């Protein structure tokens, strides 16, 4: 049996991004890892560490398959924003991001049969326009930002908040497509 492609994520956005380039994971197997930043951990290091930890956890269960994992971190300077758990956290994130530049770093990690591995980091810089309290409240109450790093989803209604983007739009959504396919190909994965 040829190796399968295992996505170590429940994110529907990552599945949609893969589908947009004609890839469908054979198996969805989320990896349960503690996503709490370590003391003084910087955003790039956090994204890389979490993506690798998720890939390792899933690869331990599926050592004969290709395992793909990713993690996205939103930051303002050295400050890491949370994955918003409720409307209150969405509101806090948007107030901080309003009128400011920020970074989104997505770590991608692939584990191949035989223990081979590949890892990439993709950093995107964005600028959000100044938001009114009414806009922040309406977005937070709409629920779209819950469960998203930084409390917003660029692929949804918050797309109109973004003034500029330098880098990878798919990475901001949750999976840089060019880098992901290059990692998979480099480790010997072939499209079915």
SSE topology sketch:
Blueprint: E1 5-7, H1 12-20, E2 27-28, H2 43-61, E3 66-76, E4 79-80, H3 87-97, E5 101-111, E6 117-128, H4 133-142, E7 162-166, H5 169-173, H6 177-186
Parallel strand pairs: 1-2, 1-3
Antiparallel strand pairs: 3-4, 3-5, 5-6, 6-7
Explain what the structure shows.
- The protein is α/β, with parallel strands linked by helices and 192 residues long.
- The chain contains 6 helices and 7 strands, in the order E-H-E-H-E-E-H-E-E-H-E-H-H.
- Strands 1, 2, 3, 4, 5, 6 and 7 form a 7-stranded mixed sheet that branches.
- Strand 1 (5-7), helix 1 and strand 2 form a beta-alpha-beta unit.
- Helix 3 runs antiparallel to helix 4.
- The longest helix is centred in the first third of the chain and has 19 residues, at 43-61.
- The chain is elongated and about 55 Å long.
Q: What is the beta-strand fraction?
A: 15-25%
From the alpha carbons, calculate the radius of gyration and give it in angstroms.
17 Å
Kindly state the percentage of residues in helix.
25-40%
Q: Could you list the spans in which at least 5 consecutive residues all have pLDDT below 50?
A: none
Q: What is the general shape? A: elongated
Number of helices: 6
Kindly, what is the distance between the CA atoms of the first and last residues, rounded to a whole number of angstroms? Answer: 12 Å
Q: What structural class do helix, strand and pairing data support?
A: alpha/beta
What's the mean pLDDT score?
96
Helix and strand element order: EHEHEEHEEHEHH
Let me know the number of strands.
7
| Major beta sheet summary | 7 strands, mixed
